[in-house]
Write a structure and sequence with these properties.
Strand content: 15-25%
Order of helices and strands: EHEHEHEE
Shape: globular
Number of helices: 3
Strand order of the largest sheet: 2-1-3-4-5
Structural class: alpha/beta
Helix content: 25-40%
Mean pLDDT: 87
Distance between the termini: 21 Å
């Protein structure tokens, strides 16, 4: 069975700690168990080994859903969301201004 991974990124509008808090809080309210977090200390860029490892985990089915805060959506490599669509991995987005998780 796959896991749900929270993705956080350094961002000028919202700190990594705030992103983790929002993801955990909203996920807990929705009954989603977050297995861990990726990206807190490194930008996920297409050519990074951390991005490759994340994509390998999604491709293998180890990760079956990802969740992140809406503010970082534009900073995530398109390849991650594209692979999720291809492999059936859910993409959940926390809206900073509304309560709850939304499916992308």
């Amino acid at each position: 069975m796959g896991r749900t991974l929270g993705i956080v990124q350094p961002h000028e509008a919202i700190s990594v700690a705030e992103q983790i808090y929002l993801i955990q809080w909203h996920a807990g309210r929705e009954g989603v168990d977050i297995s861990g977090f990726a990206g807190s200390d490194d930008l996920l860029l297409e050519e990074n080994s951390s991005t490759t490892a994340l994509m390998d985990s999604i491709a293998s089915g180890e990760i079956d859903s990802i969740v992140f805060v809406d503010a970082i959506a534009e900073k995530l490599p398109a390849c991650i969301r594209a692979l999720c669509r291809k492999r059936g991995c859910k993409v959940l987005i926390v809206d900073r201004y509304k309560a709850g998780l939304g499916v992308a």
